[in-house]
Amino acid sequence: MKALLLIDIQNGFCPGGNLPVPDGDQVVPVANRLIDSGKYDMVLASQDWHPAGHGSFASSHPGKKPFEMGMLSGKPQMMWPDHCVQNTEDAMLHPDLNVDGIDFIQQKGQNPAVDSYSAFRDNDQAALTGLAAHLRAEGITQLDLCGLATDYCVKFSALDAIEMLQGVTVRFIEDASRGIDPAGVKAAINEMRTRGVGIIDSKEALA
């Protein structure tokens, strides 16, 4: 059983969004080819789904500016621009993404007191989203993942998949993903590879 997990391919992370990843929209046609390929028994997507005033927003911390480090619930936290607020256009999956081919959407980041990069659990690792249990119940043996952003939500999702889905082959599709910082992307890919994540491109995924 093969599954494809699309990470946060949302308006907010694409050009014109509140927290745009450079060239983030360029993952959409690659993702659509993967969705439409028939190679996957299940296609899933994660969706950042923050309440207004989330604690990771710089606007929730007087004097803080986006992309400064701050504190959230006693732990260091990158301060982000307001983004992917529930039920706003910024939070919607990209309009060109083939959402009809997506079987399951996992929302995340709903607790205002903790950020949630991974599709599997909050950053403090205390609260699970339920995605790992869902994949285990479906009997998934291979998980390919891609999306936005490589150096944050994609990386943390991949690392959690390796840890939480033991025995499942986990692969990162590089050309179906984009990151925020080139050095961060390189480091993220190296970390994923070291932890046992396969690094492939979409041609390999579709072969």
TrEMBL record:
Top enzyme category: hydrolase
Keyword Hydrolase found: yes
CDD domains per record: nicotinamidase (cd01011)
Sequence intervals crossing the membrane: none
Family, similarity comment: Belongs to the isochorismatase family.
NCBIfam families noted in UniProt: PRK11609.1 (NF008623)
Annotated protein name in UniProt: Nicotinamidase
Organism: Rhizobium jaguaris
